[in-house]
Amino acid sequence: MYLTSTLLLSVTALVSSTPTFKTRQTLNKPIFAHYMIGSITPEHTNQDIIDAQNLGLDAFALNLDSLDDWARNTTSHLFDQADTSGFGLFFSFDHNHFANPADYTEFLKPYLNRTSYFQYNEQPLVSTFNGEDVSNADWATFKEAVGDILLIPGFSRATPKLDFFTGREALDGIFNWNSWPAPGAGKANVSDSDDATYLTAAHDQGKLFMMGISPLQFKHMDSGNNWYLRGEGNLENRLEQVLALQPDMIELQTWNDAGEGHYMGNWWEEPIQNTPIPDYVRGYDHTGYWKVLAPFIRAWKQGETTTAGMVPIGKTVQGAFWHHAVTVDADCETDPLGKPRDYQNAEDVVSGIVLVESGKKGLVAVVTNGRKELGRINLSGGYNPFRFEGLGVGRVKIDIIDEAENVVVVGF
């Protein structure tokens, strides 16, 4: 049992030991994780690759927002390590920094022939974060310069519509970056309506659609970077939506973006030192998500269209649960930034997913907060999401009990 959490979100793994997460790789059902390039040591990038492979991921989408030496060095040793490991990498160029793909054309060219550069149907994949303002002509020029690539940018500001690719013919697909409820939606769960529109638009034109999965967003760095995008109900609903919609590929948001709080893999101190980020993530591990993600990846690659096929890997029960580490109405007087924007969309709840082996009956999950029971759920074989209100001060714990009231698994 181990605890994983962030300042805003606590994530707890529910299993008595750590299994190995090898999954069968299925052609044309790839799943990636967004990976922020920083000044990361070779030892840490190598560990990231090992962990991602064990989890069942196919590649990292390398978010690159600089061509300075520190970024080139980290990129170089990632590719050196991936070339010998069988893991994939591809670039997601950050257009909050780059104005035009011409800015990185020459940088990209030599990497496209690397052993580890991820290909989809024999075409190297290239993506972005944003880039909505790039013209179709400039995208076409970029593709002519670098060769036969598969260009699937990630847009956060575009309007989803069925004729989305009219005037964007150079694109080979689209990645919808928005995997969280819009702030104006209030206390609502994430919607997949934009994803469905993009998917239809792409498939009608013989193009591809990439869908994102993320737990939440929380940034608390300065007055211009202090916000919350709702995580209550986000991950468990997103997993169901992805399996139902069956996009062409999936990207986890993210592996290591500690600054926005949605890291689902490792984060390391060296790229974020001398920033406020360690103050709100240090000591808060999110690898508890792996207990849910590994079975999800296996279900995805096996072609499952519902979460019913998500079962533990080598265990009777496994799962994870998450909650805020402070209540919504908490007053942190020493915090100079104050509460994040849209904090009022948060709720004092405990959410989670418990996976039970097929055919197993008679188990109940009991969630307590301090001395108070928040709720209980009768578990069935497969996927059991839960959400209980009333989170307050005190340790949160989940007990899995059998018909004789014996505790068989504990998570806290």
From TrEMBL:
- Source organism (scientific name): Pseudopithomyces chartarum
Where exactly are the transmembrane stretches of this chain?
none
Classify the source by domain of life: Eukaryota
* Molecular-function annotations in GO: glucan endo-1,3-alpha-glucosidase activity
Keywords of this entry: Signal
A Pfam family annotated for this UniProt entry: Glyco_hydro_71
Q: What is this protein called?
A: Glycoside hydrolase family 71 protein
* Record-linked InterPro entries: Glyco_hydro_71
**Does the keyword section mention DNA-binding?**
no
Signal peptide location = 1-17
